[in-house]
Amino acid sequence: MSVLTTLWFSPIRASVLTAMALGSGRGQAAGKAVGSLRDVALRDVRRVDPAEDGGWWARDGAGRLWHVGESGGTDLVAEGLDPVGTLAVGHGRVAGRGLDGHLWVLDTHRRQAGPTRSEARLAPHGGLCILPLALIAVVEQTGDHVLARFETDAGGRWQVVARCREPVLPDAEPVIVDLDGRHGGAHIAVLAGPDAQRYPHAVLGDGIEATRVVWLERHSLDPLRSLRLGAPDVFEDRQLRPWRLPDGRTGLVTVRSGPLGAQLAVVAASRSDPSALEVAASGPAIGTRNRWLSPASVGPDDAEIWAVHTPHIGGVLHRYRHQGGTLVPEVVATGLSNHRLGARDLDVSARVGPWLLLPMQSWRDAHGVDTMTASIAELPAARSHIQQLVASLSRRSAVLLSESGVAVWFP
Known about the structure:
The protein is mainly beta. Among the domains are: 1-41 and 344-411, no CATH class; 182-342, no CATH class. 0% of the residues lie in helices and 45% in strands. It has strands at residues 5-7, 13-14, 38-40, 45-50, 56-60, 65-68, 74-78, 88-90, 93-97, 102-107, 116-121, 128-130, 135-141, 144-152, 158-163, 175-177, 187-195, 209-216, 223-228, 234-235, 241-244, 250-258, 261-269, 277-282, 293-297, 304-309, 316-323, 326-333, 350-352, 355-359, 366-370, 376-378, 386-391, 397-401, 406-409. The protein has a 5-stranded antiparallel sheet, with no helix packed on it.
């Protein structure tokens, strides 16, 4: 059903979530309401992503790409995109999987020229990342999935110029990161070693989980460093989230799962082996097999990591701090969520300045957790269930609703 997209700026009433504890005291309600409301005429929205120059990219069910400005204006930019696949933004380009399964790339400074394409098909659920002169994406290869580097030829068409030898997760999201400062800048980290036997939980849509993390040279996609988990553990995740450890190393935050359920883990370059990665820090396991946690906010330079334990069963928000090589969790609130069971989406919550915005367990409402003061702001009741929260560069958040409308929260 088509509906009007709505940008929400309406008053937000502050409240304290029950069972919330922060530090030695209890969280305090916010002292004032903030926000206002505005409508935008946009229909059938399926996904929202932050735009590089502010505002958001919105995709509708027909594969059209719209730019939604901070003031609520909309502009039809291009067509032919997969409405729900991963979208990558950076270096003046927007890249995704086209409706025909091929790479789709738009130069945002030359919109009138339209998107350029590739001959190679992308994996249906795989991620992409954008480099200054290239793109990295997950492609299918003889029954496996691997990373491929795309560059443009003389005619402006995207061609595969390198492939990695290591099979990666079919729905992996590669990230560009410098892990050791010794290889001429940032390179590509990705979850690899797919295994369908070790841990048949399927919380992320299938029973295939990663057993390796690999760091690949960005041009050749040859391995620089790697880590392999011993059985029966897996990485029950799609993403690797850069986060600086107290010792100065850049780590990658992910979720490791095994017989005692999920735990946060930080993978970093080994100090003793120049070809290895290691688990440099981890939190305690939840304690029960097939109990998962979902990272909610991991900033590269943040002192804390936020994650929702059992987001499908009670939803307990934890704040993690690094202490002596261990990630120490602290319960903050209950009744929240940032993941739907069986979904691949891991970008449901949004960090907007000090606010962490998360849906409630019912998915009818959302709350903002002030990570500085422990206050909780209740967003206005949505007219339908919440699908996604997406921060913009200007400290606002788009809220995608189940009936294809959009709400934008202004703190």
